[in-house]
Amino acid sequence: MSLLLRTTPPRATIHRAVHAARRKGSWWADNNTLPGHRGGTGCSYPAAPGTQARGVSNTTSLGSSAGLINAPDDAPRHAQSNGTPRNGNSSSRASKLSPQPRQLTTTSAISRPNNTRSLSTATTTSPKMYTTSFAFFEALWDAGVTHCFVNLGSDHPSIIEAMVKGAREKKGQFPRIITCPNEMVAMSMADGYARLTNKPQAVIVHVDVGTQGLGAAMHNSSSGRAPVLVFAGLSPFTLEGELRGSRTEYIHWIQDVPDQKQIVAQYCRYAAELKTGTNVKQMVNRALQFARSAPQGPVYLCGAREVMEMDIEPYEIRQEMWKPVELGGLPMSAARDVAAALAGAEAPLVITGYAGRNHAVPGALVELAETVKGLRVLDTGGSDMCFPADHPAWLGLRFGNEEAIRNADVILVVDCDVPWIQTQCKPRADAKVFHVDVDPLKQMMPVFYIDAVARYRADTLTVLEQVTGLLKADEGLKAQLAGDEERDARRTALEVAHKRKLELIAARCEPLDDGAFGTGHLCARLRELCPDDTLWAIEAVTNTVFVHDALQPTMPGSWINCGGGGLGWSGGGALGIKLATEYEAQLAGGGAKGKFVVQIVGDGTFLFSVPGSVYWIARRYDIPVLTIVLNNKGWNAPRRSLELVHPDGLGSKATNEEINISFAPVLPDYGGIAKAAAGGDVFIAKVDKAADLDEVLRRGIEAVQSGQSAVLDCKVAMNC
């Protein structure tokens, strides 16, 4: 029989021994053995933390040759006890495996069934305690996680102890803790931070209910490919004080569910339970490997209180052994096929959606567009700044419906989820399509396909460099690309079309005749008045195209849109982006400051973002952001969806009030909500006339630059 089997008596045997000991008025003490189990083979169990309710030591063994349980020298006697504490007969083997006993402190007794004695439920924590929880935070920091966005609960006593210990003992080498009164906001902050920096951050939530509270933010992180590690506790799995961390509160029964990780597993790249503290650092790094390996995304770990309370020996792992999996480029023959197709194309087109997450990709796309005269670049995702608006090849952001898709003869799709919407627009029948993506099969989508002659799972930047390199080096391809009248004419036509496009956008951005203004005019003025290196956190829904046309982003990383369809991302997302710029500036040194961050959000989406939590956090941690609320009196996306399916139906002729998407007549005070949450310390203003707009924007910008958040309620006209 193995050592494990020989030294692990059945639970029923343990319970009989414990109850027998109680009846005889003795303690469950350290390093004794059950009847029939001599000292060297005693069954060792960590005692309850805070409860330590069945003994004194952190590691407790059961029984003695007489079937009694004795207390070690340093254990105080129970109130009913009347003698000197007995000595435990510890074996050398048990003492090597077990931490030294800790002293119990007296707290209110817990009633026990069958007239059993009430035992203490608290311990004096050793300042040298090294638990699973503390090792967990060390692992995060060593892996590059600098911030934890937390919403704490009854599953986190050891997490809290570790936080305090880290703040006191490891300043500058411990993640910064940001308290978030709502899980959606916590996850969105981590998402925004990771989206800008490509550095994973952590979120800590409370058991199953906190996991459910992540809600749409988990969807956004998954669809948006944001590397975020989520940790949640589990209800304790022991009831009678067997281990430190055993159940101590009513809610521990109510929040005990069959498989907590399944709540979010379908959105995660990896989901697992921590079952021991001895490999917690390996488990954290395994999770982060998944989060950081393409396609990136959220990961989820959970652990019960008993596991997180475990005392373990301090240890380190070799961080260089835990790098993410990297994708490579194309086989040389495949790269040549793509290059040859582009070189011979009459109307070549690149479609992308999130390739700009890698800030080197926009420059690589520009180089390709300069090499292939007449190449156009279309963004059909709006997730990141993928191609600069000041280049003649820029077609802007259009969600899967654009004339260039219909007339292109060669299409290179790179890192894009929805290159076109088949019911509205599709390539011509003879178009040759190549699909290069970190996830070309879209494994999280049950239904996805596009007609492509070839598809490759590869790193987009590497592929672009391969293809451009071939086009510049191969003599045959160079000859095809050499200047002739036809190719020069294509380039000239592209420049003319780009100039005309910008003129049309400028015309649409003019104020209306009645003095009102639309989203286009508002964003054109923001672009003019905000700092040149402003970062834009966008969640404008039906107004997104107008925002993008007017802002015309050109700087890599400057445009970050919600990666999914879970409305409410931008509140926390903008805070995470701002926090990231501040921290990265500190790392750079030299007095550098974080960048100016603007959140542009629809009025309905503003309410989804849990502004009561967002603006409390902004004030509590001094994270000033300018929020622009696009106030069009309700949600208009449902009407657009309705009219695409029932263009002549009853709803198409009904008012917004009739189809239940209007906020009228009770319009929320968006600035007032933010101001209340921040204890009054937010600049707020409303504007509905173009003549007043610049002054309101300037005042909001100045407030944020001085360190105060600002919320501007801007009444915008529809469809412009």
TrEMBL record:
Q: Where is the Thiamine pyrophosphate enzyme TPP-binding domain?
A: 543-713
* Region annotation Disordered: where it falls in the sequence: 40-123
* GO MF annotations, alphabetized: acetolactate synthase activity; flavin adenine dinucleotide binding; magnesium ion binding; thiamine pyrophosphate binding
Q: Domain of life of the organism in this record?
A: Eukaryota
Q: Which GO terms describe its cellular component?
A: acetolactate synthase complex; mitochondrion
**Can you tell me which family this protein belongs to?**
Belongs to the TPP enzyme family.
Any single biological process term in GO: L-valine biosynthetic process
Q: Which Pfam families match?
A: TPP_enzyme_C, TPP_enzyme_M, TPP_enzyme_N
Alphabetically sorted, this entry's keywords are: Thiamine pyrophosphate
Q: What is this protein called?
A: Thiamine pyrophosphate enzyme
Q: Where is the Thiamine pyrophosphate enzyme central domain?
A: 337-440
Listed PANTHER family: PYRUVATE DECARBOXYLASE, THIAMINE PYROPHOSPHATE ENZYMES
Per its UniProt record, what InterPro entries does this chain match?
A: DHS-like_NAD/FAD-binding_dom (IPR029035), THDP-binding (IPR029061), Thiamin_PyroP_enz_cen_dom (IPR012000), Thiamin_PyroP_enz_TPP-bd_dom (IPR012001), TPP_enz (IPR045229), TPP_enzyme_TPP-bd (IPR011766)
Domain spans labelled Thiamine pyrophosphate enzyme N-terminal TPP-binding: 132-262
UniProt cross-references to NCBIfam families, sorted A to Z = PRK08327.1 (NF006203)
**Annotated Polar residues bias:** 54-64, 79-123
